[in-house]
Every structure is written in C-alpha cells, then in structure tokens.
Recover the amino acids of this structure.
C-alpha cells in the first residue's frame, strides 16, 4: 500500500517495544462484538494509481464542463479565468499541507498571506477590518445576522427579496432553531430593486437589514438611504456580495454605510467546483471587531522586535470560549483564501478594474443582443456582469433542452423559486471575461429557435 | 600562492576560524535560505499587474451611476514577483510535506497527490452547481458513491453530504436531533458534553439554541458513566461524545452510554474527528449512535490547506435520517441521479430540517476523499487504522519513562498519545517544550488540550510516518522533555532558529492590527 510506510518487520519491532503480541491487543478496549473480523464487506480492495484514475476519469467525463461549451450560469458562482500561477501557488506543499497556524513561529507564510487577504477584502468591501474567511457566502450571511443580533440585542432581520434564495434558505433553517425572526419575500420582476420597500420595514425591533449587491437578478442600487434609515433605528446594514469582481467597477458597500459586509469569494482564484469548496468573505466596521466570528490574523512583534503575525482575539472563539463563543466555526477556507489573495495580488487595482469593466461591457453587449430576440425582454436598467431576461415562455424546460444541445444558457428563476409562478419566465444570464462573442451568438441563435 | 580556483573543489582553510552562528549578523537580516518577505502593500503598486486582459468593448456602462469613484488601494505584482512572493512565504511554513506533524486530534497524514490531480479534472473542477442535473450526472454519481462508502464504513443508513467542515457537521447533527425531538413534541433544552470535548461541541450546541452542561471524566480518562446516567432526564436532548475520545482512548462503554441516553428519550451525537483510529475495523453504527460527522480532511486525507477547506459529512441512524438537510443526491430505479431540493422535498423528504449551505457541499473534497478511498480499499483502510494505532502506542510506550502519561495505565491508546507537564522543573511549561521542539525541526503536538490534563500534550503521529521518522522524532522529543525536566532556561526563549522568535500575542490582542495601514497611520496609532 503506497501510502503506508511500515513493513511487517517494523510492525513486529514496534509491537515488541510496546509489549503487545499483536495489533489486536491494542484494540482491547473495543468490545469484541463490535470489531469486524476482516476487511469491511461490500467495498473493493486497494487499487493502484492507474485503476483509480480510470475510475475517477469516467465519473468526470459524465459531466458537461463549462469550458467546453457556451456557458452563462451565475447566481452566486461565476466562471472566471484563473491565472496559471494561482494553482501553482496553492499547490506548494508548504501551503497545501500546513495546518491552521497555531504555532506562529513556523507558520508566518500562512499568517502573512491571511493578513494580506484580510486587508484586500476590507479594502474591496470598503470596511475597516475583515476576518480570515468563512465556509462560503451563504454561511457568512447567516453569521452576519447572528452578529447583528449580538450587537443590537434584537432578533428581527429584514432580508431583501434580492438576496440569493439559497442564502435565504440557510438563514431560515437556522432561524427556526434560534428563534430569530426573518422578514423575507420572493423578488418581483421589476427593473428597480426592493430598496424602497425595505425602508418601510425597518423599525425599532429590527436588528439588521440584509441586502445583496448586485442582487440576485443582477440589479444594482445605492444602499445609502437604507444605511441611514437602519442607523436611525439603531439597526445595522448588512451587505452581501456574491460577485466580488463587481466591486472593481461599482462603489463598495462600506462607502454607502454598510456595517457588515459579507460575500462569496469564489470568483477570484477558486473556480466553480460544483459549489465548493468556496470562500466566505466577512468584513465590518472596526467598532464591531470583537463581535466577529471566525479567525483573525493580527500583526505583532517577536522577542527580537521583528514584525510577525499571529491568530488573535481568539477569546471570541470556540476553543477558548466554548459555548459562549461568537461562532462554532473552526476550520475555515484557508487554501481558498490563499487562492483569492494570490489572484487579487496578480490583478492589482488596475487589473481588477480592467477585469470588472471587461465583464461589465461584455455583459452589456450580450444583454442588448439577447434582448433583440422576439419574445425576450431585458429586466435590468442597471447590472454588472449578470442580468435577467424575461422570456415569453417557461424558461426551465428551455434551459434543460439547451443543456442537452451543449449550451449552458443560464439559471432559470424557476429552478431557484419553484413555487413563485410569475418568476418562471425569468432567466439569469452571467457574462464574464471567459465568454466569447461566438458563445453569445450561439445562445442567441438557440433561444431564437426556442421562442420562434 | 595565487592560483585560479574556479571550477575546482573548494574547502574552507583549516586556519580560518568559524565563529558561532549566533554572533553573526547580515546586512539584510536574512540568513541564507531563511529570507524575510515584505508585504504586497510595501512592494506592489496599484498600477502593476500580473494579468493581461483583452480590451473591453467600447460601450456605455450601465452601472446605475455607482461607478467606483475612489481608489480601492489594492496593490498588484507582476507574475514574476507574485510567484516569488508566495514561494518565499511558503518557505516560512511547516507542513506535512516538510516533516512529521504530530498535532493530536488533527490527523495530519500524507495528502496523496493523485487526489489533487483527480480534483482538477475539468469534469469536476469546471462545473457549476446550478447546471441542469442531466449535465452533471457524473458529479452526482461521485457524491452518491462517496456517500455509499461512508455509509458502509460507518454502518449507518443515511448520510448528509453538504456540511462544510467538522463544526458544520456537528451543527447538522444537532439540528437533526432537535428536529427529531420537536417532531415528537418533546422539546428538550440541554445537551451534555464531556469536559474533555473539543470546543466546537459546546459552541455548536449553543449555536443551535441549546443549553450546554459538562459531564466529568473519570480517572481513567473516560466519560464518567455514572455521572452521565445521573444527569439524564426529560430535559436532556442528547449527548455529544467523542469516540475515540480526546484523551486518545476508546470509550468501551459507548454502547451502554447510547442505550442509557436512548432510554431517557435523548439522542447520541458522536464527534467523528478521531475516526482514523477505527476506520475499517469498527463501525460506529454498531455503537448505538444517532449521528456522527466525518472530517474528510482528517481520516480521508484531503489537505488542511493552512486552515481549510474541510468537509464534514454526517452519517445518521434511522431515527434521524428523515430530518437530514437538503439538498442531497438520490438515485432512481433507472440509474439516473437526481437532486432532492426544496422543490421536491415535500414528496421525497418532507421532514428535512432544511438547507445549511448554498450548494452541494465540498465537491472538491469529495473527489479527493473518494480517490483516497478507492486507493486504499477496504483492506487498506483497516491497515490505516491499525498502523495509526500502532504508531501512537509506540510513541506512548517509548516516552512514558520520560514524560508523564496520565492514562498510560488505562491500557493501550488509540491513534494519539497523551502526556502532561508533570515533572517539568524551573517553571517550564508545555509551551516551552513545544517551542523547543520547533528548534529541533518539528511542528509541536496539540498543546493544552484536552483540558482535563494539566499542560496536556497530545501526539498523533498518523499511519503515514515510517518507523525511522518516528524514531527520529522520539529522539528529539525525549531530548526536549529531558531538558524541560532539568529546568533548562534556554527553553523559555525558544524557538531560537525559526523564522521568528516567540511572538507577542498579548500585544496583538490588546491593540489589534488586522489590516495593513500606511506607515503614517501606524505612527499615529502608536501615540
């Protein structure tokens, strides 16, 4: 067995040192009746690299990879080009096979990249501080709601109808157990976001208002008025960003007064990976830092006065505070955070802004092309790299049919909101730097065929 | 004599003195391969980039008048600089690839590279979670196959695949317990947790809205069964037990614990962090438990990545299976794989407690874990457990003469050996020993955990260490332990040879600097 170095002789020598006659003696505390008498039944025996590779390749082949066909899916996960060096960097064994940096003297590599990551995220979001990552955007969103409850000591969260339905679903699951009250509705197919409606719902019982930016339908609107109204009721504005590349083109939530900004960092460095692992981003204003969940990396000095980095403020965390911790999170998304920060460093502000404008303008061109089609209208006045089309037919069967023709057309609102009848005609289309003009034309032609 | 020496073998002249290393300073502060690396904010610039992008089409933007109007402040590096930056930083990290990593309860085993290669197949890495299910049949089948492996290995009838890490799996299990109790109209409010438990256990129970109470350990390092039984009652929703436990011992009374909890109307959560000790040899399903998470990043070799990502599928008993979260993969009679989501839950999984995460869990970890399982097979996994336990007992028995092993008399340990700081002289602590071990070229063991042992040191060698590697480690640990018992002052200032000396964590917490600030702001903050 290629991963197991002990030889039969080693095992005998070691048993002799231990004073045991066989390995069974070491399992003496395990009641006989629950010990298996041989290799577990119904599973194959060990296999070499070639056989395993063949098995896995067969499974992989039975999927339509995004890069092999016109591809327009977004809605919380985006296909971007990841520079070759990013994957090289995260495969350095010293990063890949390290543990959480509990011994900072021999983990400065991980710690410094986390410090740089936190700074990049804070600046991108326009807030003072950010943590060292969460599992993903959806869990970060719930943690932000819990954090707002801790800060305001109120239990009512107002969720925008533009918040990703899966994020809403996660929050609803948790709120049922924690007895938090959530106010939430399905979106309405209008060009304007639900900001005006949200303003009316903020009151003195509200802990926070949670707004996705750009929202699930791709719409963008200024959150300043919401921040102001929330603050006048001593509530918090939580902004949720599922496409961080957008913040290379549009103002940050922090600039508009958001108190906590969370997001999904998958767009940078991580790749689609069928939904995970991704990387949750979490930032907030300085004054709330001690209420944050998750790990934080901070700067300090060593005994010789040299700058160094450590995990800090761990008295918020489960391994110190146990049941009084701000969260139960332990392992987070370290390596995905490294991929994010390496990609961001390669881009730099100039590259990020260029990438963002490339995404946006390609999306504008694609939106106009698709909206020309008879039976299709464009919902959005404003959008970044993702917009919603209204078809005059039920969208979901069309998306399935086009997938069979090797065109991945977008995310139908019927998939995301199966119960909301009027949304069945909506199609969310994402366009990134990886989308070619030919891809757009292929989608347009296919949709023309379906709607003719 | 003046002779051209280039290209000839060289040797330091015997008459030239070699001064002690510590007495020497370099201009840069660097020491040969040990090189400091500045922050990107000090070397990069916002107008430099390591990415070339095509020109954007010339169209008007439609950003709702919200065009980002202020500097973002994110410096860039060229590719050449970026690769060097991260490569230099990587060399300041300890990692399994570099050496034995005896971090107890973390199972730092070798991460096979075939796993990495397989996870990067485009059919796994380049598919979107919301693609129509017909276009991702292979991905769904992968999840399904892994689920079957996990069910077979644990002897449990159901598994939830979506939890993102161990603590998230704990949450999944506790929510299922709460849902099951609520479904029978029996709201209970207390979860019992042994005092030796990992901190995530009580934190999870509290996060799910439960009150947490400790159960004491007995002098053998195991759950005090009598104390547990005495506390059971109509207000106790369940217990969270780690087995093998955090003292590195199997709980021989696990079945009796489960029976007692069930009799009192509660349910049993098992923390599966230590599954590596029994995988392929004992099925947790035979111990009467109702839910257990499995850390794929421990037992099934997916890399820890400097703190994640993990993956924490949860296996369930029949009592809890109906409450498992959405979404999950199911197989139709015709061999087609489909997703059970909110839409279809009413027909197919009506009691589910709901969704815990946006998509399907850690696919990238699933492919790695399945690759690992296929590589080992049923026979290899059994050998994994046996070698892991053998290695740990070898450590325990090789060191019990020099380090206090509080539960050594309780019998063999499982996959990890526990020691205390009993006998250290001159005020030396476990921390000092750990830092001394760093100088010897090792990552220290888990320190000060579990809490039930003073100055605890939890050593988990794992099965992927050779006897030679363990012997070398034992030599180093023995030497540092002897120094600790002899009161060697030098340990208090260790490490001496690492990229950094001991770091001031108190200052870091008192005045947190969590993001880089321009130097002038630093100056102001210091005033």
């Amino acid at each position: 067995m290629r991963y197991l170095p002990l030889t039969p002789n080693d095992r005998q020598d070691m048993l002799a040192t231990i004073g045991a006659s066989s390995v069974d003696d070491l399992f003496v505390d395990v009641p006989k009746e629950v010990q298996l008498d041989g290799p577990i039944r119904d599973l194959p025996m060990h296999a070499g690299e070639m056989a395993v590779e063949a098995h896995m390749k067969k499974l992989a082949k039975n999927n339509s990879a995004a890069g092999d066909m016109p591809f327009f899916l977004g809605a919380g996960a985006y296909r971007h080009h990841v520079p070759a060096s990013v994957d090289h960097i995260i495969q350095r064994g010293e990063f890949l096979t390290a543990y959480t940096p509990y011994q900072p003297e021999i983990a400065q590599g991980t710690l410094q990249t986390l410090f740089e990551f936190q700074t990049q995220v804070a600046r991108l979001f326009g807030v003072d501080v950010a943590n060292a990552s969460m599992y993903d955007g959806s869990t970060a969103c719930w943690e932000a709601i819990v954090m707002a409850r801790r800060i305001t000591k109120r239990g009512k969260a107002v969720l925008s109808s533009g918040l990703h339905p899966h994020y809403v679903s996660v929050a609803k699951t948790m709120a049922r157990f924690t007895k938090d009250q959530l106010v939430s509705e399905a979106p309405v197919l209008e060009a304007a976001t639900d900001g005006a409606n949200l303003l009316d719902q903020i009151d003195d019982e509200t802990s926070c208002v949670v707004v996705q930016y750009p929202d699930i339908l791709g719409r963008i609107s200024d959150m300043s008025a919401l921040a102001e109204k929330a603050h006048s009721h001593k509530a918090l504005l939580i902004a949720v960003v599922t496409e961080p590349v957008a913040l290379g083109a549009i103002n940050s939530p922090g600039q508009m007064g958001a108190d906590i900004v969370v997001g999904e960092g998958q767009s940078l460095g991580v790749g689609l990976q069928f939904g995970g692992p991704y990387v949750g981003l979490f930032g907030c204003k300085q004054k709330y830092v001690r209420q944050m969940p998750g790990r934080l990396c901070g700067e300090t000095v060593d005994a010789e006065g040299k700058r160094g980095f450590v995990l800090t403020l761990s008295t918020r965390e489960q391994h110190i505070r146990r049941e009084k911790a701000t969260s139960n999170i332990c392992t987070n998304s370290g390596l995905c955070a490294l991929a994010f920060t390496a990609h961001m460093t390669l881009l730099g502000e100039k590259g990020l802004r260029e990438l963002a404008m490339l995404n946006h303008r390609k999306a504008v061109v694609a939106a106009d092309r698709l909206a020309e089609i008879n039976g299709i209208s464009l919902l959005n006045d404003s959008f970044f790299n993702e917009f919603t089309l209204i078809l005059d037919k039920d969208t979901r069967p069309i998306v399935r049919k086009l997938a069979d023709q090797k065109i991945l057309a977008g995310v139908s609102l019927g998939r995301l909101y199966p119960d909301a009848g009027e949304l069945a005609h909506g199609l969310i289309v994402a366009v990134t730097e990886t989308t070619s003009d030919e891809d757009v034309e292929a989608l347009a032609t296919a949709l023309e065929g379906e709607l003719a | 004599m003046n002779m051209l020496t280039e290209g000839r073998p060289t040797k330091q002249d015997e008459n030239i003195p070699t001064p002690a290393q510590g007495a020497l300073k370099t201009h840069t502060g660097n020491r040969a391969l040990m090189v400091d690396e500045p922050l990107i904010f000090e070397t990069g610039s916002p107008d430099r980039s390591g990415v070339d992008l095509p020109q954007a089409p010339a169209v008007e933007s439609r950003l709702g008048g919200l065009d980002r109007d202020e500097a973002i402040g994110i410096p860039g590096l060229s590719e050449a600089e970026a690769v060097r930056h991260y490569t230099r930083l990587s060399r300041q990290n300890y990692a399994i690839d570099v050496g034995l990593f005896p971090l107890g309860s973390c199972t730092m085993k070798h991460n096979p590279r075939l796993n990495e290669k397989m996870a990067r197949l485009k059919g796994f890495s380049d598919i979107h979670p919301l693609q129509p299910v017909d276009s991702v049949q292979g991905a769904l089948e992968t999840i399904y196959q892994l689920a079957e492996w996990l069910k077979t290995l644990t002897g449990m009838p159901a598994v939830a695949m979506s939890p993102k890490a161990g603590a998230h799996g704990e949450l999944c299990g506790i929510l299922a317990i709460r849902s099951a109790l609520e479904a029978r109209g029996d709201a209970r409010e207390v979860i019992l947790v042994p005092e030796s438990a990992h901190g995530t256990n009580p934190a999870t129970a509290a996060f799910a809205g439960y009150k947490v109470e400790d159960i004491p350990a007995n002098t053998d390092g195991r759950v005090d069964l009598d104390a547990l039984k005495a506390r059971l009652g109509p207000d106790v929703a369940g217990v969270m037990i780690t087995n093998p436990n955090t003292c590195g011992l199997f709980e021989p009374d696990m079945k009796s614990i489960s029976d007692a909890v069930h009799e009192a109307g509660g349910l049993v959560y098992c923390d599966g962090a230590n599954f590596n000790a029994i995988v392929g040899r004992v099925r947790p399903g035979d111990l009467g438990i109702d839910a257990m998470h499995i850390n794929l990043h421990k037992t099934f070799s997916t890399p820890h990545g400097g703190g994640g990502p993990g993956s924490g599928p949860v296996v369930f008993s029949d009592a809890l299976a109906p409450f498992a979260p959405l979404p999950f993969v199911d197989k139709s009679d015709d061999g087609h794989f489909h997703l059970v989501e909110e839409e279809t839950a009413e027909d197919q999984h009506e009691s589910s407690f709901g969704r815990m995460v946006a998509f399907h869990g850690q696919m990238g970890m699933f492919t790695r874990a399945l690759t690992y399982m296929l590589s080992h097979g049923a026979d290899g996994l059994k050998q994994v457990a046996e070698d892991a336990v053998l290695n740990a007992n070898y450590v325990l028995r090789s060191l019990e003469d020099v380090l206090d092993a509080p539960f050594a008399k309780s019998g063999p340990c499982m996959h990890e050996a526990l020691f205390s700081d009993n006998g250290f002289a001159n005020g030396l602590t476990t921390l000092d020993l750990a830092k001394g071990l760093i100088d010897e070229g090792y990552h220290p063991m888990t320190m000060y955990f579990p809490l039930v042992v003073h100055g605890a040191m939890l050593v988990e060698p794992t099965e992927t260490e050779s006897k030679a590697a363990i012997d070398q480690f034992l030599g180093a640990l023995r030497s540092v332990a002897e120094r600790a018992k002899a009161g060697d002052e030098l340990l208090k200032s260790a490490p001496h040879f690492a990229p950094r000396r001991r770091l001031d964590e108190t200052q870091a917490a008192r005045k947190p600097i969590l993001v880089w600030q321009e130097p002038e702001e630093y100056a102001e903050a210091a005033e």
